[in-house]
Amino acid sequence: MQTLRRTPLYERHAALGARLVPFAGWEMPVQYTSIVGEHRAVRTSAGVFDVSHMGQLRIAGDGARDYLQARLSNDLDRIGDGEAQYTLLTNEQGGIVDDLIVYRRGEDQFLLVVNASNVEPDHAVLSETDDVSADWALLAVQGPEALSRLGIEVEPFTFRDDHVLGVRCLIAGTGYTGERGCELGCAADEAVRLWDAILDAGIVPCGLGARDTLRLEVCYPLHGNDITPERTPIEAGLGWACALDKEFTGVDVLRRQKEEGTPEKLAAFVMDDKGIPRQGMAIDEGGTVTSGSLSPMLDQGIGLAYVDAGLAAPDTKVTVDLRGRPRAAHIVKKPIYKREE
Amino acid sequence: MAADESYPEELRYHREHDWARVEGDTATVGITWYAQDALGELVHFEPPEEGASVAADQSYGEVESVKAVSDLISPLSGEVVEVNQVVVDEPEKVNDDPYGDGWLIKIRLSEPSEAEGLLDVAAYKALLEEQ
Are both A42 and A141 inside the same structural domain? Predict the structure, then answer.
């Protein structure tokens, strides 16, 4: 059996009574008190997640921009220094090796924050990058009160080096919850000090359980569930993150799919009947659920599913096979949950 | 609020973490504190139909938390005479009060002697020690 890795905050999680589970080779908190309660804290005030398991790859030097531009789907020239971008790493078939955020520090200087379970496959494709994951802790502080409680400002998809609550951090206006907030990167040996200060600011510790329900309500795909090396950005509805007018790995396939359409599309749905959809359940009319949960905000079952392209339009009625019980649902426009303005 | 850990003396227990309160030829059935704690906050109860037959050691329904689904195992055989509609509407009642308001179904027993084969509280606590 493989030994699970622990983040610099493991002792803090254990002391808070978190339920710790294996995730992508790490022993991570899935919840501290209740997934539903932590979820609501992020939607209504502010929560903090230890996401130090995520990987960081760095590349700097002549040709760094050209190297990434030829391998990542989005157009790097759309961002300047101090800006960040959602992008995809694709394979020759156009499949999604990983989804990630690229941070541009300078013309030829970039940081990539990648999924924990994909550090090795990403590094295999991006072999010119340095894996600096072990040096860093990463905390996501998310929610309508996140920035005010930290006493900082940061615009979405920008970043800078600055102090937060007395700790030197990379402050990035990014996240995975659909709320305003930030992600804070700091040296691994500063993580406990930063975590303690964040909790002292009245921010609620939240586990990976709430992180998953939050991202699902706003239809951010989870790699390994909703997007995989066998699925392309076009089927997944991520064409907006692909610059098809430039050359990158697998672009020919994506151009053809964009032109001709794909047999299936990733669609969001809400249950009309009671019951909670789960990954792997069939859509009787044609499709498979890739993520499913109860939505804590809607108090209904919700999910993402690859469905036959003809079923993907909003308001289409579908039937989810809940362990042998047919249950009614309908397709909705993404995101599933949006704050009432 | 989640309940504190407890295992009432007067109940009989099934090793799959279900309890039964036997009164004459009927039994009230639910899941133990240990089961609800392992699952976390319950968000769905999939009950059997009233009038359905249930058999000892067999699944009669499901409960779900945000992350997990668990089969409900009937400790005893008989006919479902009542489903707790309060729990259907508010599954978190099971977390709040697993042996009281959080009961799940009532069964008219077809084989009352099966209750003899269930665990008493000491045997059930011994089982939990091994988990």
Answer: yes
Q: Per the domain annotation, does A314 fall within a domain?
A: yes
Closest residue on chain B to A212 (Cα): B67
Nearest CA to A86 out of A292, A258, A227, A194 is that of: A227
Distance, in Å, from the CA atom of A299 to the CA atom of A274, rounded to the nearest integer, reads 10
Task: Provide the CATH number for the domain around residue A285.
Answer: 2.40.30.110
Contacts of A209 in chain B (CB under 8 A): 40, 66-67
User: B84 lies in a domain?
Assistant: yes
Cβ separation B66–A35 shorter than 8 A = yes
Q: For residue A165, is it within any domain?
A: yes
ipTM score of complex: 0.86
Contact assignment for B64 to A293 by CB distance below 8 Å: no
What's the CATH code of the domain at B33?
Answer: 2.40.50.100
Using alpha carbons, list the distances in angstroms from residue B107 to B22, B49, B51, B55.
9, 12, 9, 10
Pairing between β-strand A181-187 and β-strand A136-142 as defined by DSSP bridges? antiparallel
Q: How many CA atoms lie within 13 A of A220 on its CB side?
A: 17
Q: Which residue of B has its CA nearest to A39?
A: B66
Residue A25 counted as domain residue: yes
Please tell me the pTM assigned to this model: 0.94
Residue A8, Cβ neighbours under 10 Å: how many? 19
- Claim to verify: residue A197 and residue A303 sit in the same structural domain: no
Question: Model confidence over A211-264: pLDDT tens digits?
Answer: 999 999 999 999 999 999 999 999 999 999 999 999 999 999 999 999 999 999
User: Cβ contact (<8 Å) for A293 and B66?
Assistant: yes
Q: Which domain holds residue B47?
A: 12-126
Q: Decide if A35 and B65 are in contact by the 8 Å CB cutoff.
A: yes
Among partner residues A35, A276, A325, which is closest to B40 by beta-carbon distance?
A35
Q: What is the mean pLDDT of residues B65-91?
A: 96
Q: Which two tokens stand for residue B11?
A: 């109940």
Return d(Cα A21, Cα A303) in angstroms, integer.
23
Taking the CA of residue A34 and the nearest CA in chain B, the distance in Å comes to 6
In a mutational test of the A interface, the residue from B39, B60, B67 whose CB has the highest number of chain A CBs within 10 Å is B67
B44 touches A at CB < 8 Å: yes
- Report how many domains make up chain B: 1
Distance CA B57, CA A256 (A): 55
